[in-house]
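Appendix B. Extra example for self-study. Work through it before the problem class; the solution is given directly after the inputs so you can check yourself.
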Amino acid sequence: MTQRWGVGLVGSGLVTRSIHIPALAALGDLFALRSLWDVNPALAQATAASCGAQAAPSLEAMLADPAIDVVMIGSPAQFHAGQAIAALRAGKKAVLVEKPLCSTPQEAEDIAQVARETGGLVLVGAMHLFDPAWRFMEQQVAAQDSAPSLIRSCIILPPNGRFDQWASEEILPPPPAGSPPLLRSEVMMMEGAIMGLAIHDLPLVRRLLRDDAGVQVTSAKRLSPFGYMLSIKAGEQLVDLFAFMHGHWRPEWTLTATALDWQAHAEFTPSFVMAGSGSASFTAKGASHAMIPQADNGYAGEWQAIAAFLSGEAAPPDPQDVVRDFLFAHAIAQQACALVAKEMAQ
Amino acid sequence: MKPMLVAGNGLSASFMASLVASLPVSLAQGEGDVVLLQGAGDWPARLMTTLAQGAKRIILLDPAPVPELGPVIEQVEAAGALLLLCETHSDNPAVAPFAAGLQPVFSTVTVEAQGEDDLASLLLAQIRVARGMGMTMGELLNATAGQDQALAMLAARLRGQEVLLRLGAVRCRAGLARLRWMAHGPTDSACLELDSSGKPRPVVAWHVNGDGMRNMPSLYENALRSILRKAVAGAWPADTQALRDWASDAALALAIAQG
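Solution. Structure tokens for the complete assembly:
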């Protein structure tokens, strides 16, 4: 039997409950979920009990546990950098950080620096990067001489609350709201939409661009109740980012790259659901070939990739990759927010 | 019933023969009743010539966008000719019944088009379908274009509601040329996907909300046959307003294509 890597999970929210615990349960030959920590001890206890793990009394205690090789960080983004760096400094072999990697470019550079110093791996849970549909699409695009002239990311989803009903079960009711929710400005909403939703596929978009350094957001509109519409120019290439959340269940999550003589297209399953991989097609010269959905989705792919890196079956990624992905998303978010702020001021 | 005589201009003999054969009671090939004028780039000149030759009823098929149409419209009016537009996408017979079922529940509309046509033609087809859906265009809020692709955002209205209209066009010689119109609202989505080949292929049309999903029945009919049936039935426009509206949309498409 190959080595089973011990896992600790930080955070007990929907992502942990609907995604990582089921994904790890299906990969029991590679990973053993040992420990879980959350700022809400009751939720941590209940969640840990549901999957046979221990509830760690503190993050420090979890990180001090030598049986834990890999830490998944599923806390709010403002805590990611500190927790990821702490895990790396504690000697963990790999850290899987839910997207976004962190909150600022400096934090991203700091994480990569510590990863280089400690030799620990850092991956971001951009699940579509690990989805077989994207791998198919990426392979096909890489074989072409021409770059896509237009890249379109389209995310149409019901609100996240629906997923509690469809993809998982609530373990504990949420604590009563202590104070009314903060009013969020249009600019904050735009930033949240990009760093919370667009961020899923921005690493894929970046890999389809010839030059991602000088992206220019030429228009940005936030959509109500939740969504965005962005036009982005990257040299001669254009990117169309569209997202809309509605009140009914007919998701549509696609990524399309179109050149004059070919088109690559991927359709992904919604977040949270364990419905297998996406599907993909590549069309050129009047013929298409397609990849049908595979059993494992990108969530499983993230963990399988970690296992492959740790066992030496695959070359570890350059820590700077996650920094580049973050900087790309951050630049788009900053420019989009500036456009929204400008419009609000008029 | 005496069949309507149709003469082609800019259309191949096999195309005309096949078209007439598909409506054998309504149509016959010949001069005298209607000129079916293909709308490739030089169509204004060919239209002027056709008018000068005395044609009184003309069906203009998929006219390519041109920047200035004033003299042509004046010539049509001076000749007392009747001109019927026929556009592959917006005159697809599925558009009108689909549009009739739309409720004022949408806040955003996206239109995507891809095909071999030039960028302005792809954009024009999108705008025309939006018109066919009953949308009225407002301010062009943003346009970004490259050699083979364009993105634009417009203020518009649909069923009396303000909506944001997103146009995205890309030239592509691979795969199916198609146009997809989709409306998004907090409670409803509606989508109409049109084939661009001009063949009588059925559209993909659906509407979904919390009550469920409705699909439109398959319809094996295309714009040209549908317009010809109208022409045979005598549904010719009394003036050139439709052509004027088209000219306005063409100017918008050309402006977006130039970024």
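Self-check: Chain A has two domains: 5-125, 129-175+182-296+323-345. If your reasoning did not lead you there, revisit section 3.
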